[in-house]
Design a protein that fits this description.
Elements lengths: L9 H8 L11 E2 L2 H9 L8 E5 L5 H8 L4 E6 L5 H10 L4 E5 L15 E6 L5 H9 L10 E7 H8 L9 H9 E9 L4 E2 L6 E8 L9 H13 L5 H4 L7 H7 L13 H12 L2
Parallel strand pairs: 2-3, 2-5, 3-4, 5-6
Antiparallel strand pairs: 1-8, 6-9, 7-9
Helix pairs in contact: 2-3, 8-11, 10-11
């Protein structure tokens, strides 16, 4: 019996179901159930929430989320080897866990979730950033989720919360901070995982804002930011060449020096630039 529920410790679960982590699926398992419960607590009060979890593996975080009182957990798992272990969790928490076998990039979870909805996941390294960008760039805002509590490689986590002037500051920081409050809430060494990854990890908590911090057309802002950081060592007037015939005038109209580089430009100024480009 484990410390958080009546199910076996995760090491026993992995041994019973022969669940060796697969590098091809970006798997690194967290075996300490006290740690997975701690991650679940970073998501806040889950008692009235449906929680979407991506890549539950043997179910360490799943058990943490359920033990912390999540109303329901919808877990999307690509690895069919993990399904029997997850079925045991579903039996221990009747009517509170639904597991869908499939690729999180292809499955639409909304038909299975009831608001309010939180997302919590130890994201597979190979799809984590793509999923985050999708959740931050829906067609309509506010999004279907109220909070994201996600584990990434430490380097990715630092890019999400980065500030202007730092090397980590870029597209991911702007997408995250334009529409959400983002902060790193937990750091984990490689030794916390089986097998240990080569890098440290961190948990990021994002809370969706009711509306973006500054007005801007999402598609224009994304285009401006992508182009600016694609050539981040160039001055903006060169990096953004081709975005508008009079791009230098647009940059000036946004209150930015055309000689600035992308990493020096704060979020508010990028939004002003997106508005200026949209008027072109």
């Amino acid at each position: 019996m484990s410390g958080i529920d009546t199910l076996p410790p995760l090491r026993d679960v992995i041994a019973t179901h022969q669940l060796s982590a697969r590098k091809s699926l970006g798997q690194n398992f967290l075996l300490d159930l006290n740690l997975t419960a701690k991650i679940a607590r970073q998501a806040g009060d889950l008692s009235g929430m449906d929680v979407l979890e991506i890549g539950p593996g043997p179910g360490g975080l799943t058990r943490g989320l359920l033990a912390e009182g999540a109303r329901r957990v919808l877990a999307i798992e690509k690895d069919s080897r993990c399904l029997p272990a997850l079925a045991e969790i579903a039996a221990a928490y009747p009517d509170r866990l639904q597991v869908i076998e499939g690729d999180a990039l292809e499955v639409d979870p909304l038909a299975h979730l009831t608001p309010p909805i939180a997302i919590a996941a130890n994201l597979p390294y190979n799809v984590g950033t793509e999923l985050l960008v999708r959740w931050l760039t829906p067609r309509d805002w506010p999004p279907f989720w109220s909070t994201l509590t996600l584990m990434f490689q430490r380097e990715v986590a630092e890019r999400i919360v980065a500030t202007p002037g730092s090397k980590a500051y870029g597209r991911l920081a702007i997408l995250s901070q334009w529409r959400a409050d983002a902060r790193i809430v937990l750091s984990l060494p490689p030794g916390a995982f089986t097998p240990p990854p080569k890098v440290s990890s961190a948990v990021v908590h994002l809370r969706a804002l009711p509306e973006p911090r500054f007005p801007a057309d999402p598609k224009v802002l994304e285009r401006v930011v992508a182009k600016a950081f694609n050539q981040r060592r160039k001055m903006l007037r060169a990096a953004l060449k081709g975005l508008a015939p009079d791009i230098e005038d647009r940059i000036l109209a946004a209150g930015i020096k055309p000689t600035e580089r992308a990493e020096q430009v704060p979020l508010e100024a990028f939004c002003a630039l997106a508005r200026a480009v949209a008027q072109a």
